[in-house]
Specification:
Blueprint lengths: L5 E3 L5 E3 L3 E2 L5 H14 L3 E3 L7 H22 L15 E6 L6 H15 L4 E6 L9 H13 L3 E7 L3 H10 L6 E5 L7 H10 L2 E5 L11 H10 L3 H12 L2 E2 L6 H8 L8 H8 L16
Parallel strand pairs: 3-4, 4-5, 5-6, 6-7, 7-8, 8-9, 9-10
Antiparallel strand pairs: 1-2
Helix pairs in contact: 1-2, 1-9, 2-3, 3-4, 7-8
Bound molecules: NADP nicotinamide-adenine-dinucleotide phosphate (NAP).
């Protein structure tokens, strides 16, 4: 049963507001972390061909679904909780890597990702980086439009696209990207891109939503955590949710996985949202899109 708050993408597909990120999760750990997260109530997972852990993610997802089938068989269909999950209860995002830009290469990369994941379809397929120097992101996106029309992906989108990249894509694409996944946290608030996304009906998804842990030490965040009797990570995730961002925090322990999910039962006051808006430092924890090719 789904209880996680969701948003609707521009093509009508529903997406859980909070998912689990798997960058830098070793392949051997991915299956167990996905299983742990499913047990805590997560229903959305963000991986990429480049992360090298699609196999483990697919095993974690596939395990929950086959557990459900076994439970249903043994109980006559009355399996419950994580044991009653169907494929459509779980949302999986993966991404095409930079070396696979271009129409044919993207179709081949997608087949490899699907084989690794062991799934019949992917919920959201993203271009990982625009790699403007390669000059191939429009062709790459055209391949994704083909996959979308064929029903192999439920939604398509982009990641790390700057305003100029989005404008070029919008002139040539037939399907408006559902999502732009960008680095976004209190030290890098991406105000211009968020405004543009709203105008274009594209959802903003925050990668490194916790600033890779760095922003959790900001004294203003620590003070808010004390005020609300929450942890710094919960305050930052709550800020994202109140801004309307999709979020995909990564964590390596069951305790943090659980902590990061417990953010739907409190609300930051407007003055505190304004206070966090004042923490902008234009500080990146990852690469600038212009420097990735
Ligand atoms: N599209 C892109 O180019 C792109 C780039 C980067 C990331 N992403 C996606 O975004 C996801 C999240 O980004 P991220 O992994 O870079 O960074 P993040 O989620 O902002 O931060 C993860 C870091 O914060 C720590 N952490 C997590 N929960 C915590 C808590 N409750 N208290 C204290 N520390 C906590 C983690 O430590 P432990 O792991 O030790 O628990 C880890 O070091 C990725 O996993 C990936 O799916 C996408």
């Amino acid at each position: 049963m789904r209880s996680m708050p969701r948003l609707t993408l521009n093509n009508g597909v529903h997406i859980e507001r909070l998912g689990f990120g798997l960058y830098k999760v070793p392949p051997k750990d991915a299956e167990v972390l996905v299983t742990t997260a499913l047990g805590e109530g997560y229903r959305r997972f963000d991986t990429a061909a480049m992360y090298g852990n699609e196999l483990g993610v697919g095993r974690g997802v596939g395990g929950a679904i086959s557990d459900a089938m076994e439970a249903n068989l043994s109980t006559g269909g009355s399996g419950e909780s994580v044991h009653s999950l169907a494929r459509e209860d779980i949302f999986v995002t993966t991404k095409v890597w930079n070396d696979d830009h271009g129409y044919d290469a993207t179709l081949r990369a997608f087949d490899t990702s699907m084989a690794n994941l062991g799934l019949d379809y992917v919920d959201l397929y993203l271009i990982h980086w625009p790699c403007a120097g390669r000059g191939l992101f429009v062709e790459t996106y055209k391949a994704m439009e083909t996959l979308y029309r064929e029903g192999k992906v439920r939604a398509i989108g982009v990641s790390n696209f700057q305003p100029g990249h989005l404008e070029e894509l919008m002139q040539k694409a037939e399907v408006v990207p559902a999502v732009n996944q960008i680095e976004l946290h209190p030290w890098l608030q991406q105000t211009r891109l968020r405004t543009l996304h709203e105008q274009l009906n594209i959802r903003t998804e925050a990668w490194s939503p916790l600033g890779r842990g760095q922003v959790l030490e900001d004294p203003a965040i620590v003070a808010l955590a004390e005020k609300y009797s929450r942890t710094p990570a919960q305050v930052v995730l709550r800020w994202h949710l109140q801004l309307g961002n999709l979020v995909i925090p990564k964590a390596s322990s069951a305790g943090r996985i659980k902590e990061n999910f417990e953010v739907f039962d409190f609300e930051l006051e407007d003055t505190d949202m304004d206070g966090i808006a004042g923490l902008e430092r234009h500080h990146r924890t990852g690469s600038h899109p212009d420097n990735v090719n």
